[in-house]
Amino acid sequence: MKKDDLYGLGIEFVVPKGAGVFINNQLQEVADSEHQTIFFSNNLLIDNLVNEDELLLVVNTVNGIIPEAYLSNYQYSYRTLTADKIKAQEDGVIIPRFDSKYRNMLLMWAIIVFVSVSVCSQIGGLKTGYESILKAFDGVTLGRSDSNKLNTLQLLMFLVCFILVGSLAMMLFGSGDIWLSEINSSETNKTYSDFFGNISYIIISIFLFVAFRLMVIYVLGNIFGNKNVSSIHSIEFYKLTWVFVLFFLFLCVLWTLNPFNISWDFMRNFIGIAFFLKSFLVYIAVYKQVNLRFNYLFSYFCATEFLPSLLAVKVFIG
Known about the structure:
Elements: E1 10-15, E2 20-23, E3 26-30, E4 36-40, H1 42-47, E5 57-60, E6 68-72, H2 78-81, H3 84-89, H4 102-124, H5 130-135, H6 138-141, H7 152-173, H8 192-223, H9 227-257, H10 264-287, H11 294-316
Helix pairs in contact: 4-7, 4-9, 7-8, 7-9, 8-9, 8-11, 9-10, 10-11
């Protein structure tokens, strides 16, 4: 709903036992009794506005009973809300429940991505164990790394996992100013065909972005006359990015299940900053393993890591 639809009032829900009330996909409260009233003040709703004037309110019920919602200035009892004299005076305004399938679509896509990443990691031999994850940071902590190059199958499976997790993160948290972030709202995903069309759009865009980035790494490595830089960079990029892919996958799946209540803006900022952190760790790992002047290496990483990370932050934070 829009900010203007509140008319300066709050919203009070009457929900059945076991129903969960969400604001912007964030679980706020679960009813522990029948006909429980749950009230959100106008100030609280204003603080949770998305894109300055939009608010998503969702009530999930376990028994299919349709909840009621009223615009009110403070919390009333259930008996007061349902009294005929109140309804006759129209002090309580019933708000039609918007039946959106978008949340179910996101949960479905999160499950698909989780299963696909699990299968692809097994096919490509991508390691997910605790020791393997810690070993990925050897280039940062010890200045040395496993020099084994990726084979074609590993690279392909890694790219598939990266793109799938990236598409899930975009659909959940994308809220920047560029065109790609405009297709992850419930208004543009009313049907499954719309949803998968937008997913395909994001997947193709991420693929082109990654392909262009790898090409820049290869070209700049040749320009600087040190192919060892691009080789080590590729290995460190794969290892550290794979750790972040697993972390983001875990985070996104948890988010769709809503087991915790964390600000949506905090999550966007956290993921955006994580892109910069990963690029900085890759820079340190490569810096410790190559013999190249600082200004050359810094210029190289500005084009191959820092600028792409800035673009990613632009997508998420805006």
